């Protein structure tokens, strides 16, 4: 990625005079976490970072900046969110300048922080040859990808930003993982319905109702008018009961059914580490079975639940 | 400190479990890849490395607390009349909070000034506070995001705690801080450790020296307040903020709450739940007007409350204890230290400009 970063910086410098801002990543307050950078001044371009610590999907900022000319840096998964936002007409293609990149995988800061022990003096992070490599205070350390990457990276359907105005660097494949960790969805499928409910009740006990999952979701556009906090209608109550919290997750999952591109922001943002993307993955499978549709692939298509057909190809209602 | 006792590493868990016979023991335990304060039992995996992912504040200020229960019934004799029965639900559980870090314990002093303020005593909080023994655990591995030393604390501080555990070779030296802590320790079958107090002090001193550096963040009340109308500053600071509540809910000092009646048929509860100023609904008025309708105003309130309004009301004490959880767990890695430092620099630059 090191060679890409200079190309990225020069492409942004070139485009910046025509734009109100460019959103990229910069070094964060913790050596493992990079942070969004809103660039309005050319001097800030030098602060841009690009390596597997650039986790956040920046596309979520775009609907809130509508009307402005915005440049944005995206990985493969982030670009799929952009496609979805375009389909839903939440952003205007002519106002967005997309700098697309090839992603080698995004590290999951939480387990990596624990695995490395101390991140003091962490200088670099890279993914290559099926391994995550870290330099901590001059010392080289490695972790297998199964321990270092975010779960979404193991189901990545394309590491390159497919829709973009400027593609920076070389095209490539998703991370090559020899040992793929078992997904929560697979674990759940092996359980009875009762066990599944117990699993979620157990998980939801830890939920603190901060709604970072919702706020980080690039497709959650109700935001300030969310059913989670509405008293009228009173969809969920404010008690600490796991079923109330699961009810919110069910609402969130249904709101994003057929729209969710599995960018993983809900799960990454959750301070309690709850495997909530699993709910969306399960619905995505149903959407694929029923409508033969995968979100985030074609800007000219419409999500299946946005359209009404008298008879769906795979739902033979009249034959029931 | 009055009494010093010693407990060996291998005796710690059995001793904590023995305490569960008479009270609830809350301790940092591993759960689903996280380390959180939870009631201890024989299956718990105690985790005393570093800072727990969430603070210990729920021990005194639960995420959701029933203030009272109520029941509606048809009036006897007069069917058109509804009668309301209200039942008190005061906390009654004795608790031993083990492994709270000095920052977590200091967070309770922030609550004390609000919930136990002379004649304005919150009976729920105060009852819990009285029934809880806070056993703080001195830090030995400060993270990059730790900054207690910049907000008036330290990795071996005892503010808000009843006793302090310091890791030493082979175990822990336990020193009492309050009379409550002293009385508790006097009853425990633990070894005397007067001769190891010095060893514990040296451990704490070494950690203090290893803390990440930086200017103090206190004493900026005036600077933060001077930027109240500076829309450009707060807009810039808040641009990347998602306006979720993760920072507030993980914070050991954030104490704002909401109260709602949750009714099911004829029965209901009035609950007090954590609220947070990053939420749109926090200041949403009944009329529909919201004086803080943008994330910039909400961020201004969060920083202002911690570093300006609270210290102005409470003798310069900040409403931030430097645990850094808001930094580590922020989905966009916002850094409260940087925001306060930027606010101070900007206010001072403006002042200089005005004087030119």
Name a few traits of the molecule.
heterodimer, A: 320 residues, alpha/beta, 3-stranded antiparallel β-sheet, globular, B: 356 residues, alpha+beta, 4-stranded antiparallel β-sheet, flat, FrhB_FdhB_C (chain A), metal-binding (chain A), 4Fe4S_Fe_S_CS (chain A)
In brief:
The complex is a heterodimer of chains A (about 325) and B (about 350). In chain A, about 30% of the residues lie in helices and about 15% in strands.
Could you walk me through the main structural features you see in this protein, from its secondary elements to its overall organization?
Chain A: Residues 251-280 form the 4Fe-4S ferredoxin-type domain. Chain A: InterPro entries: 4Fe4S_Fe-S-bd, 4Fe4S_Fe_S_CS, FrhB_FdhB_C, Helical_ferredxn. Chain A: It comes from Pseudodesulfovibrio methanolicus. The complex is a heterodimer of chains A (320) and B (356). With 320 residues, chain A is an alpha/beta fold. Chain A is built from ten helices and eight strands. Chain B is an alpha+beta fold. Chain B contains eleven helices and 14 strands. An eight-stranded mixed sheet of chain B has the order 3-2-6-9-10-11-1-12. A four-stranded antiparallel sheet of chain B has the order 5-4-14-13, with no helix packed on it. Chain B has a two-stranded antiparallel ribbon with strand order 7-8. In chain B, α7 crosses α9 (295-313). The longest helix of chain B is centred in the C-terminal third of the chain and has 20 residues, at 336-355. The chains are: A alpha/beta (320), B alpha+beta (356). Chain A binds chain B through residues 28-31, 33-36, 38, 56, 60-61, 110-111, 118-120, 203, 206, 208-212, 214-216, 223-224, 229, 231, 237-240, 265, 268-269, 271-274, and chain B through 31-34, 36, 53-54, 62-64, 141, 143-145, 236, 239-240, 242-246, 248-250, 258, 260, 262, 269, 271, 273-274, 276, 279-281, 327-329, 331-335, 337-338.
